[in-house]
Amino acid sequence: MSRAALDDAWKEWLVAQQRALELIQGAALDAPLDIVEGYRYVSRLAALALTIYVECDDPLWPRFELQLDPYARKFACDSPDTIYWRAPVSSRERYRVTGFAGDAPYTAIALQSDLYTGRTGRKGTLAQYSLDELSVGADGIFELTLGVEAGGPNPIALPDDVSDILIRQTVLDPSDRARAWVRIERLGGAPGPRPALTDAEWIEGMRKASLFLPSCIAMFLTMGRNWGRHVNAFRYQPARRNKQDAEGGDPHVDYFQGCWKLASGEALSIEFTPVREFRLWSFVACNSWSESLDYSGGWPVATNDRKALRDAEGRIRLILSDEDPGHPNWISTTGHREGLMLLRWLLATEPPAMPVTRVVRVDDIRAGRA
Q1: Same domain assignment for residues 241 and 331
Q2: Which of 69, 156, 272, 293 is deepest in the core (most CB within 10 A)?
Q3: Can you give the residue range of the structural domain that contains 269?
């Protein structure tokens, strides 16, 4: 074992954290809430990086871990309606994946190549399958077989560039979230427990974590700047019908992306009419760092087709504001004055129309004037 190599890996990790913090400081947001959340963003992603790359990145001994959660693992405008399970895989191996679909209206299996750690070849979502395309037991339990010449239930080939499998499971009821589970095992591996950690494995994990942290932050700061060109409005990114997405998004989703900036007493009115056929739409308000606002504490920071009320003509109107306007489709900004926002349309059979937005006064909404 080389103590010098271990020390070098640790120093590289410290440099990566400082570089990540400097990216946040360079974003030049002035609100105290944005600043402290920026520092927390770095610490959250640092913890996530160590979990993914040091603790859970062995394709010979894979396990699913929550990539994102309601509390501390947030980025990429994470959806409060989705559980994100990630496990490492290799195209040279075969795996069995089992899970419980329950009443989830949508479960997607994405085969991905890491965007952040300097891998060569294709990046992002290489292939994706909806559970609708696969067989599921009457009890809601599904089984997949992954790998070259995969046999057994629901065989799925692994692309050469694959690094991990990401399962997105939409859940609309807290009990469904509590009951959800997925498991993975490598087929044909050596029996017995996982071998002890080696110095080479730890060094490689720290190398990847050191690449991930500033790369992930830089990527989503760039994304936020692009969305920031659409102030209190949206831009449209259509679903990728080829089931691939170089940015790692869900190719089954039509995205409307934008940012909001509101002064005290202002609200953003967002109106749209649902398309004729779709699985689900959802909306989430995020801070400027691309984290969903705090929905674990009870704030109404997101909604979806099953929660939002329609008017008599079937239209949806969402009201985004800091103060409660007394509207049934209120989305809280939780004390923020600006941030990002994302409207997702899942498995829409036609392109959704651009939402109509306008800035109004909260008092006018309460009085029925807006």
Answers
A1: yes
A2: 293
A3: 228-366
